[in-house]
Write a sequence for this structure.
């Protein structure tokens, strides 16, 4: 026990020194923060329409051939399970969008021939809003939506 | 180098179901640390899965995919014993590839 406590003290002192260095401007934290620049247009879109346009489509039509499975009430917005199945022939792409997130597009999946038009994952949802399942086929873009009620936000980490 | 992915791939008829659990913080760039500074964005932006040299899924992600991402998909064609390989790349340029045998 004594060893682990010492070890902890040692490592935390090191961490404090690093923080002090950052505060003194030796490690430019702000520069690090600015380093990442999103250069994929679709991920900058704020609405479903903007994302569809950035992907090269016109407007998405609502379709009942897409099945979006997400909880009606998400207790924790940081992990919201989403399952999308498309019954539209020639599905090439499936995307998940969230209406009130800082950027609408959460994830985009390219579906090659032989892969089933099905995706299951977990996303962050900032606040209670519509979740969209966007599908691209040879015929254009289609979507379906569902409201997800978030009781704890997804941005807090 | 990040921790390995956990990949499970099982045959269900002629379709393989692949489940992947990655280990990644998926920082959005919007979160503040204890001292009130923004934590810089750092998230997986590209995921590719290949079987027999053929891409069976490719994904582009934004920061809104949950921390320690989970992903499941299904594809036709493989046999039990085949290998599936998954690669991710994050915005910091870090990358990781893991392989699993389909059972």
């Amino acid at each position: 026990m004594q060893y682990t406590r010492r070890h902890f003290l040692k490592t935390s002192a090191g961490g404090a020194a690093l923080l002090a260095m950052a505060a003194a401007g030796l490690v430019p934290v702000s520069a690090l923060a600015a380093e990442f620049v999103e250069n994929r247009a679709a991920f900058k879109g704020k609405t479903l329409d903007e994302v569809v346009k950035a992907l090269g489509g016109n407007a998405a039509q609502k379709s009942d051939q897409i099945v979006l499975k997400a909880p009606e009430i998400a207790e924790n917005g940081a992990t919201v399970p989403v399952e999308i199945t498309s019954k539209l022939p020639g599905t090439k792409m499936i995307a998940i969008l969230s209406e009130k997130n800082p950027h609408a597009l959460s994830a985009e999946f390219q579906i090659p021939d032989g892969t089933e038009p099905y995706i299951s994952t977990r996303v962050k949802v900032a606040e209670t809003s519509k979740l969209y399942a966007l599908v691209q086929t040879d015929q254009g873009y289609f979507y379906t939506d569902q409201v997800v009620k978030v009781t704890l936000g997804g941005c807090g980490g | 180098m990040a921790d390995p992915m956990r990949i499970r791939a099982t045959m269900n008829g002629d379709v393989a179901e692949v489940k992947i659990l990655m280990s990644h913080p998926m920082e959005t760039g919007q979160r503040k640390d204890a001292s009130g500074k923004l934590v810089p964005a750092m998230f997986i932006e590209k995921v590719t899965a290949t079987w027999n040299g053929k891409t069976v899924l490719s994904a582009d992600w934004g920061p809104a995919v949950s921390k320690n991402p989970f992903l499941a998909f299904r594809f036709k064609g493989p046999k039990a014993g085949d290998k599936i390989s998954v690669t991710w790349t994050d915005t910091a340029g870090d990358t990781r590839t893991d392989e699993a045998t389909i059972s």
About this structure: Chain B is about 0% helix and 50% strand.
